[in-house]
Amino acid sequence: MTSLGLPPGIRACLFDLDGVLTRTATVHAAAWKEMFDAFLRSRDGAGFRPFDAVDDYDAYVDGMPRADGVRSFLASRGISLPEGRPDDPPEADTVHGLGTRKNAIVLEKIKELGVQPYEGSVRYARAARDAGLRRAVVSSSANCRDVLVAAGIEDLFEVRIDGVVAAERSLPGKPHPDTFLAAAHDLGVEPRQAAVYEDALAGMEAGRAGAFGLVVGVDRVGQAEALRAHGADLVVGDLDELLGDAP
Predict the structure, then answer these.
(1) Which Gene3D superfamilies match (predicted)?
(2) Is 16 part of the annotated catalytic residue set?
(3) pLDDT-based confidence at 26, cuts 50/70/90?
(4) Which strands make up the sheet holding 234-236, listed edge to edge?
(5) Which residue in 18, 88, 162, 219 is the catalytic one?
(6) Confidence of residue 102 (pLDDT cuts 50, 70, 90)
(7) Which of 66, 146, 176, 180 is most buried, with most CB under 10 Å away?
């Protein structure tokens, strides 16, 4: 292992955004809950079963493109909605309409609360830069660039593969490996030469499916065993735990 906790041959680091670099995963979970609870309440009445911001978030929406998350959770409740269009307004009861509704809530919460990075992960990304490793952010979020700018860390990354880029290139989102593979390609490395850093179960599956050189699970919510089961080679509470490894 190197001083970055990496095996020999790793030349690039591919970082997820929400929950790995920035403290925005909890914001997303709260936004999903607010949106789904309002939808379920209007559909089922006062006795509706609420969206669980931990279990449902982890199982059905975390790390996925927005529309995929809507479909996944609704399917878990046996609910089917019209697909709609990506430009559906937030009041539309369609897959894309609910996604638009959730995004509006997220943007309002970010505007209100701001964006805080995880300082340990920022230290790690800076150490990777100083060691000459290539660096990319790989996120399902269409708001990725705005979040990076708000957190003051955009300059740490050479490549950004986010929801906007994925749509432009027709890349399927996590748990498919395509967005991570695109980041490795854009950095000029093979998958086996890249390490993936993720906190979502869907991201673990994407890392495993892409045959990357190392898949690191970042456990912020006490799900270390689930991260390992879904593909993590090792699990840490924060990335700066890897900085003390001896060469």
Answers:
(1) HAD superfamily/HAD-like, Putative phosphatase, domain 2
(2) yes
(3) confident
(4) 159-161, 134-138, 12-15, 194-198, 214-218, 234-236
(5) 18
(6) very high
(7) 180
